[in-house]
Amino acid sequence: MSESMLFRDVVRERHSMRNFLPHPVPEDILRSVLEDAQHSPSNCNTQPWQTHIVSGSKRDALSKAILAADDAGQLTPDFSFGIDDFSGVYRKRYKEQGAAYYQAIGVKRDDYDLRRDASRRNLEFFGAPHVALLFMPEVGDNVRVAGDIGMYAQTLLLSLTAHGLGGVPQTMLGFYGETIRKELGVDPSLKLLFGISLGYPDMAHPANQYRINKVSVGESVIFHQ
Ligand SMILES: Cc1cc2nc3c(=O)[nH]c(=O)nc-3n(C[C@H](O)[C@H](O)[C@H](O)COP(=O)(O)O)c2cc1C
Question: Pfam family example for this protein (predicted)?
């Protein structure tokens, strides 16, 4: 894959990668991806994203600190999240995603130990050599800024694909906001929305071989004229 891929191919090729090869991304390529992400739109041109890219020994130390926080039950999310808040079609879709992932990696529905291990892979960045932590300032009810971070994240994810790389956005990393701020020396005024583990995806791994169904335009869009 290369930067000359057609836009529609890049969009369709991008999917969440949950297993990575260990070798790091050369700095010039990483910078090129981050340059692309800077071109994202934002409310009133505020460009409120504050991104920390963590690699090497610092990445290992960060993962260790998050796993320790998880072991100690120290969850410190900056924003609320409850899986049971999803109902109806949203609940159906999240359950389908979970089932597809666990089936792909050979974990049975009722094997809670293996499911927990698989979930903890989030905290090991799925073996990725880099993780991007997406921080944001608090502004009003935060909805607009969170939208801007989403715009930025998607540009970054598409650029990863165009560069032959892959990533996975992870709300789960946002559950350890205080631990991550402390490890990286980030000011408490900056809130962690989510992280993106990134690198060269291991395409031979079953976690990267299944694709999630996308609903049709007809289910999401209503035309008026
Ligand atoms: C903001 C955001 C947070 C996410 N958090 C997680 C996460 O914590 N762990 C995970 O494995 N996947 C996470 N995902 C990935 C979604 O499960 C995935 O995007 C969705 O199932 C659609 O699949 P696709 O990305 O392959 O198109 C997240 C996605 C987004 C956009």
Answer: Nitroreductase
